[in-house]
Design a protein that fits this description.
Length: about 110
């Protein structure tokens, strides 16, 4: 299985050359960190050599931070980009929460409270 993974990394790296650095890094992310981590961390930017990753929650953040140097090296190698570091940030849910209309709001009646 490890041999197949190495082949995929090499092949992916070769096919990414025509893309921008940020697109190459985003495409390489899943291969670099594996499916489980990739499902919980998304590349959201690449600025001044730093990959910005939005992480699902604090537990996954700790896992990714503990693997930072390995992930940096793998993303750098696969994407062929000058990656100086990875910045992880916990995903923030939108400040605006859409409230479902209750039956009184839909009918135009006032709530008797």
């Amino acid at each position: 299985m490890e041999g197949l993974r190495d082949i995929l990394r090499s092949t992916l790296g070769q096919s990414l050359r025509a893309m921008s650095d940020e697109d190459r890094i985003a495409a390489a992310w899943t291969v670099a960190c594996g499916r489980a981590l990739a499902e919980r961390g998304t590349v959201v930017g690449f600025v001044d050599g730093v990959v910005h990753v939005e992480v699902a929650d604090a537990a996954w953040m700790r896992q990714m931070v503990s693997m930072r140097s390995h992930l940096e090296a793998e993303v750098r190698r696969i994407a062929g980009a000058k990656v100086a570091g990875i910045h992880f940030e916990e995903k923030k849910f939108g400040a605006v929460v859409r409230k479902r209309k209750d039956s009184n709001e839909r009918t135009g009646r006032r709530n008797p409270r």
